[in-house]
Write a structure and sequence with these properties.
Layout (H helix, E strand, L loop, with lengths): L3 E6 L5 H7 L4 E7 L9 H10 L4 E2 L16 E4 L8 E4 L6 E3 L5 H10 L6 E7 L12 H12 L2 E9 L10 E9 L3 H8 L2 H8 L1 H5 L10 E4 L4 H7 L12 E5 L2 E5 L32 H8 L2 E6 L5 E6 L30 E4 L2 E4 L2 H7 L14 H10 L3 H16 L1
Parallel strand pairs: 1-2, 1-4, 2-3, 4-7
Antiparallel strand pairs: 5-6, 7-9, 8-9, 8-11, 10-12, 11-12, 13-14, 15-16
Helix pairs in contact: 1-12, 4-8
């Protein structure tokens, strides 16, 4: 089988690329990484250092003409989580467009304008996407599914916690795999049992098996156009109708709660730690420990705002130090730096308490050691990259599953 060509959007430091190209059945032919909030494009610099500058774009994707993006078989990307509501209906051939600056609409625009649309999509986001916004639960995800359905895609999705499938980090993300109506897989979905696709036969179910249960599915269809979906979906309801797994094809949604099925080895936090190779600056001074213990501890106290208003503040405790015999907590973008924090990881070794190093954070996401090491890139920035990244092995397993279904 010929390699599938890939366009990687919101590429970061290349997690999707590492995972897919490691299967040897995908080839990235164009990529884009642009960070709007920083003058120096650190992530793009790392990407170019690892994969080369050829066919890599460091330009605001909203300003990249679709004709400059080569045709490709698979579009992938971990796009920012924003408000995806429809802003306007235009009286032109371009049809529906969303708010400027909301980068989901760049994906939509590229798919809409491509004369030869990619056969497959693999997209990733935080799992709260299924429930946002708080004022209209599930609307954002509905807008995405409706938009992709109108463009001719069947979309399967699953919330995947990497640790539940043997990876060393508890990182929950929703993954979407789209199949264009011109593909054989679309035809297979259309002609076969939709619930079986969600739980047994689909790309995500093959890559990440679930327990077979008699869980009742919720089935509904999208009424009206995309603007109508944006304005009216789930109005007045307090809960999102979207479960952690599902399928949308031809504007019909089937969604079901599934439970992971995995009996392989579990990788704990201890499996990725460096042994005796950590410099002193990652260790926490004894006089700093009380600050860390306070921030991570249980609190119930009166606090006062700048305006003098007093309120009762409470929060539960966190494990301190982090457990070494279990998968780690999720890496966040603020993981780097020496300052005490409630959310940064702290491990206890024979030498004392310390933070995680950039290499250890890379390992938690399945990146090669020192993938983000580059002159001018601070350890804090390297930690930020890993807080934004996906687990490489999850992308690889999805790619392998897609290839296996294409070979059937």
């Amino acid at each position: 089988m010929q390699k599938l060509t890939v366009c990687e959007l919101f590429a970061g430091v290349g997690g999707f690329r590492l995972g897919l190209e490691d299967t040897d059945r995908f080839k990235v032919v164009w990529s884009n990484q642009w960070e709007p909030s920083t003058k120096t494009q650190h992530a793009s610099k790392v990407y170019e250092a690892r994969f080369g500058a050829q066919n890599h774009s460091n330009q605001n994707i909203e300003e990249v003409p679709t004709q400059e993006i080569p045709d490709h078989d698979v579009l992938v990307g971990g796009f920012p989580c924003q408000d995806y509501s429809v802003a306007a209906t235009l009286n032109s051939s371009k049809g529906l467009l969303g708010k400027k600056g909301v980068l989901w609409w760049s994906i939509y625009r590229i798919l809409e304008e491509k004369k030869k649309r990619p056969q497959y999509l693999i997209l990733e986001n935080v799992d709260r996407l299924l429930k946002s916004p708080a004022t209209q639960r599930g609307r954002d995800f509905a807008v995405m599914l409706k938009g992709l359905s109108d463009l001719g895609y069947a979309v399967e999705w699953r919330v995947i916690n990497a640790a539940e499938y043997g990876f060393p980090q508890r990182r929950r993300r929703v993954f979407l795999v789209g199949h264009h109506k011109s593909s054989q897989i679309f035809k297979n979905i259309r002609e076969n049992d939709k619930e079986q696709w969600i739980t047994r036969n689909g790309v995500l179910a093959t890559a990440f098996p679930v327990q077979q249960t008699r869980q009742q599915s919720t089935i509904f269809d999208f009424k009206g156009d995309l603007v109508s979906t944006s304005n009216n979906f789930n109005q007045g309801k307090t809960h999102s109708p979207f479960e952690n797994s599902g399928l949308c094809i031809e504007n019909i949604v089937i969604t079901q709660k599934t439970t992971p099925s995995f009996d392989g080895p579990q990788l704990p936090l201890s499996s990725i730690l460096l042994n005796g190779e950590v410099t002193a600056d990652f260790y926490i001074a004894i006089d700093e420990l009380p600050k860390w213990q306070y921030l991570k501890g249980r609190k119930k106290e009166v606090r006062t705002t700048k305006t003098g208003y007093q309120y009762q503040y409470s929060e539960g405790s966190m494990v301190f130090p982090d457990a070494l015999d279990k998968p780690s907590r999720t890496i966040i973008t603020g993981e780097g730096g020496k300052s005490p924090s409630r959310f940064k990881h702290v491990v206890q070794t024979a030498m004392g308490y310390r933070r995680l190093t950039p290499i250890e954070l890379e390992r938690l996401n399945g990146f090669p050691d020192n993938h983000t090491k580059l002159q001018g890139i601070s350890d804090t920035k390297r930690a930020f990259f890993m807080g934004n990244a996906l687990v490489v092995g999850v992308a690889k397993k999805i790619g392998e599953s897609l290839i296996s279904l294409l070979a059937d």
